[in-house]
Amino acid sequence: MTDDPTRLTLAEARDALAARSLSSLDLTNAYLAAIETARPLNGFLKQTPELARAMAGKADQKLARGEGGPLEGIPLGIKDLYCTKGVTTTAGSRILENFVPTYESTVSSQLWRDGAVMLGKLNLDEFAMGSSNETSAFGPVVSPWRKPGSNASLVPGGSSGGSAAAVAARLCLGATATDTGGSIRQPAAFTGTVGIKPTYGRCSRYGIVAFASSLDQAGPIARNVRDAAILMTSMAGYDPKDATSVDLPVPRYEAAVGASVRGKIIGIPKEYRIAGMPAEIEALWHQGIEWLRDAGARIVDVSLPHTKYALPAYYIVAPAEASSNLARYDGVRYGLRVPGRDIGDMYGQTRAAGFGAEVRRRVMIGTYVLSAGYYDAYYVRAQKVRTLIKQDFETVYASGVDALLTPATPSAAFAIGEKENDPVSMYLNDVFTVTVNMAGLPGIAVPGGLSDDKLPLGLQLIGRPFEEETLFSLAAAIEQAAPKMELPEPWWAA
Ligand code: GLN
Question: What pTM does this model have?
C-alpha cells in the first residue's frame, strides 16, 4: 500500500501515520519528489522543502509518542493568498513579488497547530481575480487533465487553480483555497476534486490578502468529501482578529460523511436552467437528482427569481470592494515601489508596473461604480439586488428545503488562451456560484462524472447558513453513487 504514498487519501495517510506504518518524512519526501516532476504544471509558486522536512520530522516525533493533532504529519499546499510568516506571499501579483509577511494567516496557523506540514505556496489568479489561473503574473497553471488523444493544455479553473491542480495531480494531500465568486468550487469542478466554500464568517479571513471583503471566504480543496471535511474542521473557527468571523462551535465535520440523507429536502432552482446550457450539463444535473432521490432525499422544484441579476451585481460589488482594498498597494509601506518625479507619480508608476490587466480592469470598474454620480445608479442598486438574492434563498429555506442542487459550472474545463481576450465569457463561468457568495451561504462542489470529452464535471450543493454538515452528507451520497473519479496519470512527469 505504501509503495507510492501519494496515492493514499488524506484519511488513509492519517491512519497510516497514526499506525506508524508510514512516516511523515517519507510521505513528505514523496510529495516533494512529485512536485519536482510536476514543474511543467506551474502549480507551485514557491516550494518550501526544508520547512516541510523539519515539520515532518517534528510530526514523526509526536506520532512516535502517541501524540499529535488531527492533521499530524499531513503535507498540504497553501494558496499564495494566505500570508505565511517568513515565506513569500505574492497573491499572484508582481506588486507583492518580494513580500515576506511577518505574520501567519489564522487559517494556516490552525493547520500547523493541528500538525500539518507545509509543502509550499500555490499559484492563483492575480489577487484571486479570474476563473482560469491565466491572470497570474507568474504564468498560468496547466491542468493535469487533458482530453484523450490531445495534448492541448487546459485550464484548471480559477482563482484557486494551483490548489485544484496540485490536489488532482497528487502534489499534496489537500490545499487551502479561497472563494469570492466561485474560486474554490469552479476549479474543484474542473479538476475532479472536492471544494467547499463555507458560510461567510465560518473561517477567519485574517492574514488572507483581501479581494472583496464581504464575499471572500477560505475553504479547502481535497481529493474526496471526507478529506475536505477533515480539513474544514481545522480551518474553521472564531477569530477575534476578524470581526466578521462567527463565534459558533466547530463540528467534527467528518462525522457527517456517510450520514443518512433520507428525508432531506433538496430544492432544484429552475432559474439555473440557463439558456444555451449544454446537454451534458443538463444530463449531469438530472443524474445528480436521481442519485439523491435514490439515497432517500425528497426532490422539490424551487424558484430563485433574482438569479439572473446575480452575475451583473457581483461584477459591481466585487470590483468596488477590490478597488478599495487594492488602494493600499501604493509603493509606500510594502510591496513593489517604482520611483517617480513626485509621490503621485510614484503611486502611478508603481501600480502601473505592479498590476496586471485584469486587476487594472477591476480597479477601474470599481472606482467608476463608486464615484459620485454613479454610486446610486450602480453600487447602491447592486447592493439592493444582493439583498433580493439573499431573500430568494431565505424564502426557499423557510419552506423547509435543506439544500439546493445545481451544476457547479456551465461547462467542462476550456483550453488555455480560449477565453483570455473575452472577459464577459470568462465571467459567465461563475453563473452558478456567485449567488452563493452574494448570499453568504455555504456551497460545495463534488465530482459528478465526465463530459463527452472525458473531462470532469461537478455538481454543486448549496446549504443553509452554518449547515455545512448537511452539505458533507449530501456530497458524500453523490460521491458514493457517482462513478469513481480516477485522477489523471502523471503524463507531465514523462
Ligand atoms: N471568477 C470570479 C472573479 O473573477 C471569482 C473569483 C474568486 O472567487 N476569487 O471574480
Answer: 0.98
